[in-house]
Every structure is written in C-alpha cells, then in structure tokens.
Design goal:
The chain is built from 5 helices and 8 strands, in the order βαβαββαββββαα. It is an alpha+beta fold and 199 residues long. The protein has a single domain, classed as Maf protein, CATH 3.90.950. Strands 1, 2, 3, 4, 5, 6, 7 and 8 form an 8-stranded mixed β-sheet that branches. Strand 7 and strand 8 form a beta hairpin.
Length: 199
C-alpha cells in the first residue's frame, strides 16, 4: 500500500483530497495524522515552486521508504486585477482575514466591471516528493468568472464568488461530486494519481 502524507492542516481540503484520490491501495494522512509539525516559508514565485517547497520540507522529516509527500499550492487569479490574489490567495489581506472579507473586497474592486472583463481561474499545483529524493509537480486549472455576489454553501475560500459558465452558478453551489470533477484541485490530483499508480 502506498502511504501518502499530504502537507496540509486544512480539514476541508483533506476531505476533498480523500474523495478525489479515493483508492484502496493508498493510505492518505494529513501532517497532523502523521505526527509532523513544521512551519514552511512559502517564498516561491509560482504555485509549483511553493508546492515543491512544502513537499520537500515535510519529506525532510521522514525516514524509510514506501511513502510519498504531496503538497498543493492553489489560488485564484482575477484577470482584471492583474491576476491577484494569485500565489498570495491564502495570505491575501492577512492570513487571519476571513474569506467573507476577502471575497467582498474582490467584489468591491470589480464593481461596475462588465462580465466579459471578470474572467478568472482557480489554479492548483500538486507537488510530490518521493522517498528516493525525486520530485514532480503538476498543474490543474478551472476557468470561470467572478460573480456579483457570494452564493452557495458547498465550498470554501473563494468558491462562493467564482462562477462556472457551464453551470451558471458558483463552485460553492455545485454538488461535491460535480465540483470535484471540474475543479483545479480535482484535475491536478487525478493527474498526479496517474503518475503515482504508474510508478
């Protein structure tokens, strides 16, 4: 069985990861469940660099073989705002600022901006650090636009203001299975799963 340690303490994210990666041949643990505590300085310039920094930092605390550390760095790029908040999505307006406030700030900055200029995407880079020292990073995206008001209870973070044209609703309004199929994290995790199972 492949033992995967996912470098996150976010329980919402862990639930999503377990649903997407669901495989009887994989045991998926959070850092807390694996007994690992580390503060990682994410000073990369891209989503991929930050994900690799996290994966390597956790991998550096593990011994033995047969494990892989996965880490993700994900965020929202709003084209009208020069792709802000981008790699700073989690720290946008301060790490302890609620997403209600962050989302409202983005909506306020887009006030009066027409739909065709509200294009945005979620980006997710998944990095893997293997016990033999190898690393790999892969990216997934979902295109959409910023709506005019938050809507939905099924998501977290920026989900309530990110709308998908195909469904005419926010990603926080999509059923979980649909969101997991379409999402940036879902695409990146499934691509990484192919790499892991093909090794």
């Amino acid at each position: 069985m492949l033992k995967i340690i996912f470098a996150t303490g976010n329980q919402d994210k862990m639930q999503e990861i377990r649903e997407i990666l669901s495989d009887p041949q994989m045991e998926i643990l959070s850092m807390k469940e694996a007994g690992i505590e580390t503060d990682v300085v994410e000073d990369g310039k891209t989503f991929e660099e930050n994900a690799l920094i996290k994966a390597r930092a956790v991998a550096g605390q593990l011994q033995g073989e047969g494990w892989v550390v996965l880490a993700d760095d994900s965020g929202l790029e709003v084209d009208y705002l020069n792709k802000e908040p981008g790699i700073y999505s989690a720290r946008y307006m301060g790490e302890d600022t609620s997403y209600d406030i962050k989302n409202q700030n983005i909506l306020d900055r887009l006030e009066g901006v027409p739909k065709e200029q509200r294009t945005a995407r979620f980006v997710c880079a998944i990095a893997a650090a293997f016990s033999n020292g190898e690393t790999k990073a892969i990216r997934g995206t979902i295109e959409g636009y910023i709506g005019w008001e938050p809507a939905g209870e099924n998501g977290f973070g920026y989900d309530p203001i990110f709308y998908v044209e195909e469904y005419g609703c926010s990603t926080a309004q999509l059923p979980r299975e649909v969101k997991n199929r379409l999402s940036h994290r879902g695409k990146a995790l499934r691509a990484m799963k192919e790499i892991l199972t093909g090794r």
